[in-house]
Design a protein that fits this description.
- Helices cover 37% and strands 16% of the residues.
- It folds into two domains: 183 residues, Rossmann fold, CATH 3.40.50; 169 residues, NAD(P)-binding Rossmann-like Domain (Rossmann fold), CATH 3.40.50.
- The model has no long low-confidence stretch (mean pLDDT 95).
- With 372 residues, it is an alpha/beta fold.
- The longest helix is centred in the C-terminal third of the chain and has 22 residues.
């Protein structure tokens, strides 16, 4: 198969779909790889490294899209890229369609086969291609939260860990999944006072065993969320419903009741955000103030640490890329029901039910397009 890797064009997005070692693996298995010139510059991998791995370097993204049978990216295609997709071409990347109807409509119109990293599952129902970026985003959320709590950034002037004789900051993590767990780990490492709120008692039990009595766990109710969010110095929104829009757990009234200069970091913003006051931002202009609270709602947080993020992502995606390239999308999805969960759009049909429901668009059962 001819696999294409364009340079990412989202604002301050430096990650790349394949690293040179992944290209070498594909070439070793008999495939050809096109890489747009400069695609790996942001992670310290120049064109020479890709050539050495066996890739062909091409001048433009348009040529990559025009020639490749499968496009491997990191972020969702931007409007200028939709027009280059064609019927039957495979697109393998993050999509987050539930919060992006224009993109969904663009992909449907293109006739491509769009497979989303974030809805591929494994035997235990986990999300193996979302997990690496959730780990990065979770850890980053505490870094950026601590930074924006500084007075010169407009924050309340609070040090997360405090000092002897001065109370540590209160950090509230909404959601105890992969992102939330990594946020907890970082916040506790900085000696903050950490609370996690989750609706799964089993997960709260696991977190209690993992982190011990220094972590405060609480079952998710409206009362618990309100009580802890309104008294927090830093809130991390880390809730996730796979493939669907994030629930709005934090109301405007809760945000308004927080101390001025407090910080809210919404990791769930890719799926629409989990606060009524959340709206997408970019690395170029990452924060805004709403009701006196600093909001950090960057939709591609891991893009700020692209080298770490890209290598972590490739570790997870490469086996699926090899399967898709070796078997074709239909056979690969027939053989692997967990990869088939990644199917979102297939040649003009929307085949992921949660996305169709959230966007109010017609749903086609995936078995119909897979021949089942």
């Amino acid at each position: 198969m001819l696999v294409g890797v364009p340079k990412e064009i989202k604002t301050h997005e430096y990650r790349v779909g394949l690293v040179p070692s992944s290209v070498r693996e594909l070439v070793h298995h008999g495939h050809r790889v096109l890489v747009e010139t400069g695609a790996g510059a942001g992670i310290g991998c120049d064109d020479a490294a890709y050539r050495a791995a066996g890739a062909e370097i091409v001048a433009t993204a348009e040529e990559v899209f025009a020639r490749a049978e499968m496009i491997v990216k990191v972020k969702e295609p931007q409007p200028t890229e939709w027009k280059w997709l064609r019927p039957g071409q495979v697109l393998f990347t993050y999509l987050h369609l539930a919060a992006d109807k224009p993109q969904a409509e663009g992909l449907l119109a293109s006739g491509c086969v769009a497979i989303a990293y974030e809805t591929v599952t494994d035997r235990r129902g986990r999300l193996p291609l979302l997990a690496p970026m959730s780990e990065v985003a979770g850890r980053m959320s505490i870094q950026v939260g601590a930074h924006h709590l500084e007075k010169m950034q407009g924050g309340a002037g609070i040090l997360l860990g405090g000092v002897p004789g001065v109370h540590a900051a209160k950090v509230v993590v909404l959601g105890g999944g992969v992102a939330g767990t990594n946020a907890i780990r970082m916040a506790m490492g900085l000696e903050a006072q950490v609370y996690v709120i989750d609706r799964s008692l089993d997960r709260l039990y696991e977190l209690d065993l993992q982190f011990g009595p220094m972590l405060n766990t609480e079952f998710s109710t409206v009362d618990a969320i309100e009580r802890h969010v309104t008294t927090a110095d830093l809130v991390i929104g880390a809730v996730l419903i796979p493939g669907a829009a994030a629930p709005k757990l934090v109301t405007r009234a809760m945000i308004k009741a927080m101390r001025r200069g407090s910080v809210f970091v919404d990791i769930a913003i890719d799926q629409g955000g989990c606060a009524e006051t959340s709206r997408p931002t970019t690395h170029a202009d990452p924060v805004y103030v709403e009701e006196g609270v600093i909001h950090y709602c960057v939709t591609n947080m891991p893009g700020a640490v692209p080298r770490t993020s890209t290598f972590a992502l490739n570790n997870a995606t490469l086996p699926f890329v090899l399967a898709l390239a070796g078997k074709g999308w239909k056979r690969a999805c027939q053989d692997d029901p967990y990869l088939a969960q990644g199917l979102n759009v297939v040649e003009g049909a929307l085949v992921y039910e949660a996305v169709a429901r959230d966007l109010g668009l017609p749903f086609t059962p995936p078995a119909k397009v897979l021949g089942g």
